[in-house]
Structures
1.
Amino acid sequence: MTTSDNRLIHVSEDLVFNLSNQHISYIFRVSPEGILEHLHFGGAIAPNRGLSAGPRRVFRCTVLEFQGIKNYQLDDTPQEYPLFGTSDTRQPALHVLNSAGNTVNTLLYKSHQITLSKADLPNLPSARGGASSTLAVTLEDAVSQLEVTLSYTIYEHHNVVTRSANVRNVGTKAVRLDNAMSSCIDLPQGDYELLHLRGSWSREFEAERMDVPQGRFVIESARGTSSNVHNPFMALMSKGAGEQHGAVIGTALMYSGNFAITVEKNEFESVRVTAGINPFNFQWLLEPDEVFSTPEAVHVFSHQGLDAMSQTWHRFVNDKISPPQFVDQARPTYLNSWEAAYFDVTHDVVLGLADKAKALGVEMLVLDDGWFVGRNNDTSSLGDWVTDETKFPQGIEETARQVKAKGLKFGLWFEPEMVNKESQLYVAHPDWLIQVPDRVLSTGRNQHTLDLSRQDVVEYLFERIDSFLSTGLIDYVKWDMNRVMSEVGSAALSADRQLEVPHRYMLGLYSLVERITSKYPNVLFENCASGGNRFDLGLLRFMSQGWVSDMCDPIGRLSIIGGASHLFPLSTLASYIGPVPNHQNGRVTSVKMRKEVGFFASARGLSLNEADLDANQDEIIDAIHLYKATAQDMVEGSFHRIKNTGNEVCWQLNSRCGQRVYVGYYHVLSAPNQPFRRTKLVNLDADSSYRLQCRGMDFGGDSLMTLGFDLPYIDAMRIQADTDYSNHMDQGDFVSRLLVFEKN
Ligand code: GLA
């Protein structure tokens, strides 16, 4: 045992571990029996002054006593990494079929070590270190011959604790992991609410809030992607917490595959939160001396509500997760070929779009799907990453060169993880699909998933993508992925390892994106999976931005951006002005509304056909001008959710310097004779005044924050000629105002 202190981690003689920065503490201890007991995650508590509350031992009829120790039962003992079967009957953090063929294991404290900063997780994305300290606590089970090392990192300048676990087989026979969570936090008894982000294709990130029920509530994915159904994120909060008040613990998993976040409230009302790889349909054979590493779980604490939680996430994502080379970079405005030409892209079409882009002031042309050999519709060719020479006779390189000669950047679409059976790749390598024998495989958009658990597949994809990026002509890659997994298995693995495929796939995917993105650090990567089907902190470690949803109707997008903003900063979000009637929901909205909702993202662009571009040319030129002028503020600014009544949404973005404040106010459906609305802005300088640009009026920062300001009024009739309509919304449904305040 080593007992040492540093600025952020204190360990007492009796093994109380106190991880604290100025604002938060994470505290646990070793019980006399050797169990790691959780004591606190929340506001800062200095070490060594005595904790005023902690785990208690009482006699309860009908419950068990751990190892026969009087009144010590693990079912109501808060723990750090609990197991099932020795008086704890709740969801365990670890469940292992040991070499004796049972799942009864007990982990007791063995040693600990403190290091400055934080090491990267092997083969998995993890938050960067820096001003931080890491505590590694090793637990052992001498009977099952298992060792588990729990890693905790606390940051000096972020109210964040990260956790992960390594499970090592120190025996002589193989064991089987059935569940290995990244993290478990047992919260004190209390009334909590939870918020999570649910959805589906084109309606991702809908925030749902509910009381934590007695029983077990799970958000999870078993689809092979983190999924658009549940994002791997959950906030647990004191009952009644709001945007600006209340205690909130946010948990997110840095993982892009099958995950589960579980909240369990048991008969004694203690609340357990576990986060990790989904134990459903998961097994991992661990041979002697092998180590299994879990993904990283990230926990944040806010005592000032959901807004402060989001600010913590946003700063942490920007500082420690997103690729550092782009995080502060204004992103180029772009024109994407998809809605303009779909699969009918050719050299001439692309050059024509490039001319249009240039005339509109756009900075980048993105060539989407349809450019590779034989790809004329979505039934064929995925996997054959070779230029279609009937469409691009001189190769993509020459098209890229000519686009760039016009002063534009050039972007290219790939969907590397997929294959159509109608492709040269499938004919050559039918065993490269994710598959099980003797079954007809389900298709999704006519395609199949390549088996990235295989090194030969990863090598092939690296070579193909590299052959395009090595030309130095590609500034941006849209990395798409358009189906989830089914009939999951690998032709390259033995029968007893088939349930390892989803996680092995993730390890293969991460190794591929790590290799490519580190070889081309100046290429901007955008993560897309039919929109937000894999929009998570795992891929964000490699790809600076994500296509949050295929939904580009502005009304449809309001709840998506509002929901995603709980975790993701605007620096990670991409948007575009798409066509009307909208291709996802058929709604018709003005260019103004599309522009003003799409405003709140860092990567902003257009996906319109030439007729739409021509018909709306002036408004689009204005939009692109606005986007370029505000691009730096989007990556650097702080975003706040100000109001959301369902029919009305208001967002605020403060530039990093505090000089500019952007307020977007959106109204869904019109109605007559509305009440007046007022809203309070946040995080302004109370002692300064701010000028509302469109009306030339000055307001005090204190007044804007405490009194609020009068939101534009929705007057459906507007029949009095002598009324001042400068603070009104447009008439009708689906209207918006974008207000800009400048600090005087
Ligand atoms: C997905 C994406 C679209 C487009 C198409 C191309 O649907 O979400 O933006 O790239 O694939 O096939």
2.
Amino acid sequence: MHAFPMGTAMWAEQLPAVPPGWRVLTPPLPGFDGRPLIAARTMDAYGRAVLDTLDAEGVDRAVFGGLSLGGYVIFGILRQAPARVAGLILADTRTSTDTPDRRAARAQSIALARSQGAAAIAAEMIPSILGATTRAERPDVVARVRAMIESQPAETIAAGLEAMKDRPDSADVLRRVTVPATIIVGEEDTITPLADAESMQRSVPGATLVTIPKAGHMANLEMPRQFNAAMSSFLSAT
Ligand code: MLT
């Protein structure tokens, strides 16, 4: 599951790196990539939409991978249908809720999305979602991320912000997990930093933790080779 507010194009470099034998689905969350928006703006509703896609594809159990918002949605899936989860790849995400300051900032971003659209949200987010190294050295990645955000509808962005702002704490949900799991985090991630990843690792027995140097919050886009190595070694062992 993709991050906010990106869409499934963010996985382009991961798809060829999936080991043979795995079938990969990258469902866009409601409202993204031209998919219809839904009325409910909650992580559980987004998780239900993903489960509906799996039902339509005839998939009962799967390894679920998600980055940031994608991780929050996976917690929604774990809350509703833990038996369908065969393994977890949790990248640059966290189980905790937003702080009061973060919630206030979300409310401002909702207003910004509605008044000025996706381009204003891209300008606001890029300094924090990309690591310092990427912003200094990889203008191609910065441009690609900007284009991915700008391609999403403003109301989809507002809905995603609402769902993130009110998401429940998921620490208990993760503590009940017994399937294989790996946690991945960019070393320069300031939104969901290493401490969040370490806390998730401690919650799941046997979970591995991979840190990606010179990557921020969008570790898969910023350092795809290193991210892919972590993803494919986990999938090969699962
Ligand atoms: C994301 O990358 O999905 C969002 O930035 C996560 C967040 O803002 O909490």
